[in-house]
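Lecture notes, structural biology module. Today: joint structure prediction for complexes of three components.
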Amino acid sequence: MSNHYIEVKNLKKYFQTPGGNLHAVDGVNFTIDKGKTIGIVGESGCGKSTTGRLMTMLLEPTEGEIFFDGKDITKLTPKEMVEYRKKIQIIFQDPFSSLNPRKTVFHSIAEPLEIHKVYATKAEKENRVYELMELVGLSDRFVNSYPHELDGGRRQRIGIARALALSPEFIVCDEPVSALDVSIQAQILNLLKKLQLQFGYTYMFITHDLSVVKHFSEEIMVMYLGQMVEKAPVKELFANPRHPYTQALLSAIPVPNLKKKKERILLQGEITSPINPRQECRFAARCSFATEQCRQEVPGITDLGGGHSVRCLRIHEI
Amino acid sequence: MQKKLLEIKDLTIKFHTDDGVVEAVNKVSLTVHEGETLGIVGETGAGKTTTALGIMGLVDCPPGRIEGGKIMLNDQDILQLDEDEFRKLRGKEISMIFQDPMTALNPVFTVVDQIAEVIANHQQLGEKEAEQKAIEMLELVRIPAERAYEYPHQFSGGMKQRVVIAIALACNPRLLIADEPTTALDVTIQAQVLELMKDLKTRSKTSMMLITHDLGVVSEICDQVAIMYAGEIVESGSLEDIFENPLHPYTNGLFGSIPDIDKEVEFLSPIEGLVPDPSDLPKGCKFHPRCKYAQHLCSVEEPAFQEYSPGHYAKCFVYEGKLPAKEVKKYE
Amino acid sequence: MAQIDLTLAPAGKKKSKKRSLWADAWLRLRKNKSAVAGMIMLATILIVIYSSPLYLDYDNDVIKPDLTQTLQFPAEGKLLGTDELGRDVLARILWGGRISIGIGVLAMMLSSIIGCTLGAISGYYGGKTDGIIMRSLDVFMAIPSLLLMITLVSIMKPTITNLIIALAIGSVPSVSRMVRAQVLYIKGQEFVEAIRAQGASDFRIIVMHILPNAISPLISQFVMEIAGLILAISGLSFIGLGVQPPDPEWGAMLSSGREHIRDVWHVTAFPGIALVLTVVALTLVGDGLRDALDPRMKR
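The predicted structure, tokenised, for the full assembly:
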């Protein structure tokens, strides 16, 4: 048994579609230490959100194990799972649809407390709700507002307060700022960071935006079509990206700086279908380094040391 | 000096709703020269899209109404045109790309038909010729001719957006308005589309107005930049002016909010507070409730749009000399 | 931050007061002119009809034939004239409305309870459960609902209770379908997932989160469905399977007046007008409710 706080082994999720099996997540491994953050980065359809849903057991994995504090949560009975729900929480991307439009701010935040019957009296519960609202920077005059009366930033704060209500230990942040305006994004990112410093939360930060995750995590895992393509400590990944996809992703980010215009690696084509993928490197179709071998063999993971691993056949040649 | 293609003077657009009058666009003045790309940057509700719809003559009326100002296209005030004349203008002189490529194409027609239709509408061409031209357009946006007869659902998001661009460019418009053209796309696809737009820009003489919230995208293809906040332009200037020497506190705040991929910082420095409710805008400078440097003056009087250096304007009292300048610094 | 928030607060929208969703809905409903008109109409109809036992005597005014006064045109004393047995049409319309509207409302309540349960289970669990429930309902759907009701009533006896049951069963399939479609849509929203992530039970999710969101856009349809059911009762009575004589019922009155329509128009026209007015009032109120119950509707 390892001493990692969270350990994910060979996690797989296939969805049945009329066209065949959709390999949403296909054999992902990673670990997170307590109080740290892992960033999961990739484009739409790479399986990052599905991974987040699997981590919170909102979806049942097809295969694989998720060890949480030494216990495999995929094998829990529904009753045991209820206890783990308190410890594992999720913050959603869209603050417009992640709140029940018919519940006031108070009810949305108090809901988890009611489900788990945390407080015996109403007064205690109310206190906790106000405390949470203060924690996330929501003025208490909004307590009886409905979500549609508030803007995206405030709604996202409600979503965060709700996730914090049960004092969780591990929080999955599924693109928590991508639906928000730039100036609000920074506010929410700072809030999440502050909360982590204050309470020692462990985060899994899912995003398509490498620059957002850079300030946030200790380790980054880049995903492509359900598979990990590269995983490294954040500094190492930015300084020394090894997988052709990571390199392209990094260079594709438009930088608001006139002095540092870098050479851009343009990828050809677009993501191929994740339904019944062929036995090949999934990135081969868009990779400028791809050879015959890449199209015939599924690349294994090469460990480069220092926590840096890459899934590429030609890693030592590129 | 290049020739002015589009000149907007004091454009004011208001929406009359049950909850009150929403001042969506307030005395906006802009100029786009021939062959130039103007970036309009701002957050949700800043009035970027409404300005664009105003130029296209597509503001929903009611509740919207253009209450004042002029929009001069080639020295002709297009606000004076009647609906028929305006329709001839759209697609031919000015065309627009919308944010969501998924819904911008009609699913029951082939891609080539949709482009040919626009061409046939505005140019006296036969069916065959229009189709030929449409295929040329597709090749221009790097879609192989053999895919011309496919339907939109067979295309991916990035390709659909390229088809949309091809439709917009089909009649060689003088002005192309692109409303968040890459926001709905993935990063690597966004890079492809931006590269294509840059290439088209250098090849054709089309002027462009790019509406976006992403300063990174602006730095890629724009020549001129205007920053909008709460229906007003708070700063405008050349790309270098805005990026190297941002004047307005809001512009500075925007730069501070963006996580910089090349820097190590623990916390970002965001703009505090929220975008004001457009039906209840603050008095004086619209930005003062969120401004770190706001003084009493800012809450009573409205600053003028002052020229700081040639071509570089900002709407802040500091540049009128009414407030000490020492405090407004460049972002860290 | 707090300071800034205050200055940005939209004027007149102080959030300190607690107000329920219903109070809010009522405010919005009151602003809607056609809904107010509908409510006034409906209230008038209901008050006049349901207070009729206070000023009408069933035996003397409603069912007692007076063969000397048959088919009289409207005149003083008998404002809407008399029918083929010399009974006062106005008295019979008022008394009959109690039966028509009462049956309609009760049948709709019954069918919405059954329909919501089936629709919610079917939509939420999906898969086999959904298949079984929906295919069974399809069997009922395949038969036109009026035909189904006719069959059911003729199998059972045409008593008021049986009539209610038959009408309810006839409208269950369409109600379930509507509810199921809404549930499917709401189930896909992130907030349901968020509540699941909190560890809420299926029952709590369905009852507290999905159904309230699913039903309110349907309430107007339910109200309009009542109108449809009133028409169905009238239809059943018209062919003799609904309310039995001598009890008055609008459809039955239409039916019996039909034979004399060439000579005297009022015997059919007035029950018909009563029916139309009630249906229009219900429809207006239903439309208003749909808008009022959506908390996102602000204008």
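Point to remember: The mean pLDDT of chain A is 88.
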